[in-house]
Each structure stands twice: as structure tokens, then as C-alpha cells.
TrEMBL record:
Protein name: DNA-binding response regulator
Residue intervals of the Response regulatory domain: 1-58
SUPFAM superfamilies: CheY-like (SSF52172)
Domain spans labelled HTH LytTR-type: 82-177
Organism: Flavihumibacter stibioxidans
Taxonomic lineage from the root: Bacteria, Pseudomonadati, Bacteroidota, Chitinophagia, Chitinophagales
Length: 181
């Protein structure tokens, strides 16, 4: 069976683009879904049906954005300065602190403010080196100098970062393989 040019193009592009087929022919619907099409609209297309298809793409994009894997060795963050993206090495991050609608990424002597919630940032981290220790703090476990009661001190930092009762059990569970008692 010879396919229309549009289907051939989608086969070449693969899953790199999201596609909504709009056609007067129903015979290629199954093929379109085999190619991971977001939707298949038959002409004449009702506006409400078109909007529904567009919302599927938007929903899929939001899911993909939230699931960006930043487990490599760096991330890009959009700062408070319009249009500016900063590349941050994960190894440089000492801790991340919630500040209202922003997070402060502390690294060395610098701090980068990013419009994000701590929860969203935590969900995007795939690296086991980062541990949530408080409703307002995530730390790099590789940089722990010592734990003292309900506070953590990081190497080369003077701040005492609180370890809350809510997160203490999870923290101890994550470091249990390194405990020598």
C-alpha cells in the first residue's frame, strides 16, 4: 500500500514531532496511531474537536517538561533576568532553598534565583545525591560535613541547615548504607 506523503514524512521524522492528522480519508487512521500521532481529525473538523486535539498536545508537552531528566551532570535554569539561561553543574550545587515562589540554588559563594517550586525541582532531580531534608531545603548529600541533632552542616559552608522531623526518617533511610555504627 502506498501511503500519502505526510505519512512518509512522519516515518522519517519519527517521534521527534507531535502530529495531528487532518484529513478527509479514514483509511490511514490506524497507521497514524502506529506512528504515535496525537490525534486524527476527519474533515469537516468541528472547532471543539480541534481545540481538544490541541489541548492533548499541550498536556503532553507539560508532562514531558516536568519529566526532563536532569540526572546527567548539569541543568539549565531560567533566571529572574528575562531570557537568560544559566548552565549549572549538579556537582556545584550545595543546597537548594525554597523562597516563596522562587528557589535559591546555592553553589559556592553564589546564589541563583529561579521561578520554581521546591517540589517541582525535587521531582525533576533524578540524582540520588540530592536529599530533601526540610520543607524548604534540598541538600547535596556528597557535601555533608556532619549531622548534629536536627541540623546539617555542609563542607565549606557556615549555614546550619535544619533537618525537620518530617524528613529525618527519609534522610536516614537514604544514607543508611553509609552509616557505620
Amino acid at each position: 500500500m502506498e501511503f500519502p506523503v505526510g505519512i512518509e514524512v512522519i516515518k522519517i521524522l519519527g517521534s521527534t514531532v507531535q502530529v495531528i492528522f487532518c484529513t478527509a480519508f479514514s483509511e490511514f487512521a490506524v497507521t497514524s496511531y502506529d506512528l504515535d500521532a496525537v490525534d486524527y481529525l476527519m474533515k469537516p473538523i468541528a472547532f471543539s474537536r480541534f481545540v481538544k486535539a490541541i489541548n492533548r498536545i499541550k498536556s503532553k508537552e507539560r508532562t514531558e517538561i516536568k519529566n526532563i531528566d536532569i540526572s546527567d551532570d548539569y541543568i539549565f535554569v531560567k533566571t529572574e533576568h528575562k531570557g537568560k539561561l544559566i548552565r549549572i553543574s549538579l556537582a556545584d550545587i550545595d543546597f537548594v532553598e525554597a523562597r516563596s515562589n522562587y528557589i535559591a540554588i546555592h553553589r559556592g559563594h553564589s546564589k541563583t534565583m529561579v521561578y520554581s517550586s521546591l517540589r517541582d525541582f525535587e521531582q525533576r532531580l533524578r540524582s540520588s545525591r540530592f536529599i530533601r531534608i526540610h520543607k524548604s531545603y534540598i541538600i547535596d548529600s556528597y557535601k555533608i560535613a556532619h549531622v548534629e541533632n536536627n541540623a546539617i552542616l555542609l563542607k565549606n559552608r557556615s549555614e546550619r541547615i535544619p533537618l525537620s522531623k518530617t524528613y529525618k526518617a527519609g534522610f536516614l533511610d537514604q544514607i543508611k548504607n553509609r552509616l557505620l555504627l
